[in-house]
Amino acid sequence: MMEQLERYKIITMKSMFITLSNFALFVRRFMRAGGLLALLMCAATAWAQPSASVRSPPSGSIAVIYPDIGEPYRSVFAQIIGGIEDKVKGRVSTFAIGAEVNAGELNDALHRRGIKVVIALGRQGMKAAAVVDRNIGVVVGGVSAAYGGDTRNMQVNILSPDPALLFSRLKEMMPRVRRVFVVYDPRQNAWMIRLAKEAAHARGMELEAYEAQDLRSAMRAYKDIFAAADSRQDALWLPQDSTSVEESAVLPLVLQESWAHNLAVFSSSFGHVKRGALFSMYPDNAELGRRLAVSALEVLSGEGDASGMTPLRAVQIAVNLRTAKHVGADTERAQGFDMTFPEQ
C-alpha cells in the first residue's frame, strides 16, 4: 500500500512539472510576441477604470419641479424628465405643482430627500424655484424668452433657439444671404440680439436690428425693412418677442408682405412655419432633458455657472416646402428636417 502511494506521488509531481513547463513555454512565447505589453496595458486599464458606483452620478440629489397640468404639456414634461433620468442614470425626485406653492412645505420636502439641485420646468416651475432655499442650486428649463421673471442665482435655459443654429441653417438653405433684418423689443431680447450679432458676423452676414417697444414702432420698422430689403441677398428673422412679433396684427402683415416681396422669413417660433415662415427650430424634449441634467450635475459639482441665460440648442427643425420653393431655398442641400409643411 505504501509503495502504491509513493508511486502515485511521483506520477502526480511529474504531471504538475509537465503542466508548469508547458505554461512557462507559453509565457515565453507570449512575451516574445509582445503579449507582456498588452497584458500590462489591460491591467493598467482595469486599474484605472472606476467602479460603477463611482461613475454613476448622484441622481438622488436632483429633483424636478414641473406644472401639474394636462395634455399635451404633461407628455412634454414627461419626455424632458425621461431625458434627465437617462443622463443621470437613475430616477430623480419629481414634484408636480399647482399655481400656488407653499414655500415651507416645498423646502421641507426637498430637504427630507437630500436635494441639492432643482430642475424647474415651465413658468410655474420657475416661480416655485424662486422660493427654494438659497443653498439649493436651481436650473430652469422650458420657459419663454419673453418671460421676465427673476433669474438671479438661476441657470435659465429658454425655449428660443440659438441664433447661431438658425443662421447656420439659413446659410445652408440660402447661401446668397448676406444681411438679416430683425425687429425686437430690447426689454425682452437685448441679450439675444447680442448673441445674434456675433453669430451673424461669424457666418459672414450682417444683422440689421430695429428696436421697437410698442406695436406702432414695430409696424414702422417692418415698413422700412420691406422698402429697403433685397430678396436676392436679404432675409428677415422673427424672434420670440410679444411686441415685435405680435400674433394677431403684426405677424399676418409681415408674412403677407414678405411673400409679396419674395423675402425669406425664418422664425424662432414653431407655429409660424405652418403659417408661412420658411423654417423654425423647436425643442427636442428628450435631448433638452439630457442637457438640463448636465447643467444640474455641473452645479452639483461646483463647476457650472450659478446664473445666466442660455438659448435652446437641443432642437429639431420644421420647414415650409411651399415657402421654400417660392423664395428659391435649397431644401435638397439642407437635409435633416424633422417636420415639413404643408403636411404630406
Alpha plus pi helix count: 13
- Share of helical residues: 40-55%
Report strand order across the widest sheet: 2-1-3-4-5-11
Instruction: Please report the total strand number as a whole number.
Output: 13
> What is the beta-strand fraction?
15-25%
User: What CATH first level of the largest domain would be assigned?
Assistant: Alpha Beta
**Could you state the CATH homologous superfamily of the largest domain?**
Response regulator
Helix and strand sequence: HHHEHEHEHEEHEHEHEHEHEHEEHE
CATH topology of the largest domain: Rossmann fold
Biggest sheet layout: 6 strands, parallel
CATH architecture of the largest domain: 3-Layer(aba) Sandwich
Radius of gyration: 30 Å
Mean pLDDT: 84
* Head-to-tail CA distance between termini: 93 Å
Number of domain units: 2
Topology diagram in text:
Layout: H1 2-32, H2 35-48, H3 52-55, E1 62-67, H4 73-88, E2 93-97, H5 103-112, E3 117-121, H6 122-129, E4 137-143, E5 155-161, H7 163-173, E6 179-184, H8 186-202, E7 206-211, H9 215-228, E8 234-238, H10 250-260, E9 264-267, H11 271-275, E10 279-283, H12 285-301, E11 308-312, E12 315-320, H13 321-327, E13 339-341
Parallel strand pairs: 1-2, 1-3, 3-4, 4-5, 5-11, 6-7, 6-8, 8-9, 12-13
Antiparallel strand pairs: 10-12
Task: Spell out the key features of this protein.
344 residues; alpha/beta; Rossmann fold; 2 domains; six-stranded parallel beta sheet; four-stranded parallel beta sheet; 13 helices; 13 strands; elongated; disordered N terminus
